[in-house]
Amino acid sequence: MKKRVVALFSMLLVFAIVAAGCGSSKGTDSKTNADGGNDKTTETAKGSITAVGSTALQPLVDEAANEYMSNNQGTTINVQGGGSGTGLSQVSEGAVDIGNSDIFAEEKDGIDSSKIVDHKVAVVGMGPVVNKEVGVDNITKEQLIGIFTGKIKNWKDVGGKDEKIVVINRAAGSGTRAIFEKLALDGATPVQAQEQDSSGTVQKIVSETPGAISYLAFSYFNSNITALKVDGIEPTQATVETNDWKIWAYEHMYTNGEPTGLTKDFIDYILSPDVQSTLITKLGYIPMTGMKVERDASGKVTNK
């Protein structure tokens, strides 16, 4: 009788240990879902991913990656620039997990857009910027095209000081350049000029070079340069949201197929209400939810 009691007790003890193990939270973190609630059963993805591409989007991805990694131990998110063309080509080839781009994949030659998945995470406004000493803060679109095509060569011809205009361009493959040429220059080919790969470098050169003009995402506007109005319209979040300021684009994070694991978790994090309402606006981007219009890959704009 005693042996049977001991055996029964031992079996009950084993079952209790197994049950406790099944209820353990080891390897599972409480995670906020897209609706703002907590999902206690979602296992946090671990490991390492790499995001490459648009330098206009890079400040947001960098900051979001730092926040995500600090809240999720055991994750590494590598963020690199290189331009939208690089992001699209590398994610298409499967060389990186995320390809960041200012342009739709359909707009880039040599990219099979059917093989990659688009995740629009924000809107970026872009605009012409000049050295603070040129004496101009507002020009017409016709004058803007004239400057970038080399027809207007001196700031005095558009109401500024008697100083030579120095055009700073972005390199071929830059999404910012593609958007600016399409929407600000109506497709005109800019004059041969100095080219730079990085938005940060452009910002610095314009601030330090007398007579300089270039173009940047709003997130790179600062007090060391002057952002030009065009036809009296200011480059602001409010004017982008209504399409009164027409030089804007979606910020895309492309994946090779539907994302999984850490890649999916990170993109979901950037699209979460907290990031959309705080980090995106703090860094000078525009939340997707604020747009009153939408634009497709062909450039057609419709009201929401």
Kindly describe this structure:
This protein is of the alpha/beta class and 304 residues long. 31% of the residues lie in helices and 23% in strands. Strands 3, 4, 5, 6, 8, 9, 10, 11 and 13 form a nine-stranded mixed β-sheet that branches. A hairpin with a 5-residue loop joins strand 14 (293-295) and strand 15 (301-303). The longest helix is centred in the N-terminal third of the chain and has 21 residues, at 2-22. It is elongated, with a radius of gyration of 25 Å.
> What is the rounded distance between the termini?
78 Å
| CATH architecture identity of the largest domain | 3-Layer(aba) Sandwich
Classified by CATH, the class of the largest domain is Alpha Beta
Strand content: 15-25%
Number of domains: 2
Spatial shape: elongated
Biggest sheet overview:
9 strands, mixed
Kindly state the number of beta strands: 15
Mean pLDDT, rounded to whole units?
Answer: 87
Helix content: 25-40%
> How large is the count of helical segments?
10
Briefly characterize the structure:
By secondary structure, the chain is of the alpha/beta class. The chain contains ten helices and 15 strands.
Key terms:
304 residues; 15 strands; D-Maltodextrin-Binding Protein, domain 2; two-stranded antiparallel sheet; disordered N terminus; single chain; 2 domains; nine-stranded mixed beta sheet; elongated; alpha/beta
